[in-house]
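Before the break, one more example. Copy the sequence into your notebook; we will annotate it together after we see the structure.
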Amino acid sequence: MSNITPQMVKTLREKTGAGMADCKKALEENNGNMDESIDYLRKKGAASAAKRAEREAKEGAIVARTSKDGKNAILVEINSETDFVAKNAGFVEYTQAAADALITSNVSTVEELMKISINGTTVENLHNDVLAKFSEKIEVRRIKRISSQGYIESYVHAGGKLAVLVEVSCDKMNEKGKILLRDIAMQIAAMNPVAVSKEGVSQEIINVELKIAREKAQEAGKPEAILDKIAEGALVKYFQENTLLSQAFVKDSKITIEQYLQKQHKDLTVIDFKRVTLNVD
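Here is what the structure looks like once it is written out:
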């Protein structure tokens, strides 16, 4: 079909975000049929993804969602090759749609996510639309999901580079509790605790910390008889600095997170949390 008008190319570009040349070719290959041209571009995006498979995608975004009742929450990390694409409105829109699809379903794998129908299409079609728009490797890297009998709060930090889910037990969540939970999530984002309390620290970590502290004391010339005591003291300090409830509150270093909770919401207990950083396992 030779009578492909600039307006037709412009319309297809607006619908797909693909380049002008690609839109023109798609219309020519499909005799000006708009729907078939859109499918053509999607297939082209999916096909070209295979050619990009060996490239590294270390930028992107992490998106978090909590269900309205606070009983379920998800984190999804979607990577791109450059920060330029990660900040593009089309990429952001796709990541938000993927997160919406996840929170309203119970799927937990990328393959299952791609099959979900959303807004009259599928997540896979949305993914292929993004692939057709950008000449980069774009992939859903991981999905994390939490379900609770209590309440879960989500928090995204640093422009989508870091996200946190915090699970708490409580009889009823109110606005005051939500504000408190946001403070807790920000604490986790900023201070990166290894566990909620010392009881949650693995024996492996404890053994490593004791060994390091003992070797440091030995190198400093401390008597053999007190090396174990010094190591135990160092472990106490480790717990204070690296477990959530024992950490100094970032907004008020005079109190710990545990003291902050007692002061603000005695009925709220932190059960667990997940902290995910972009492209870091």
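The first helix runs from residue 6 to 16. Residues 96 and 265 are 32 Å apart (CA to CA). Try to locate both features in your own notes.
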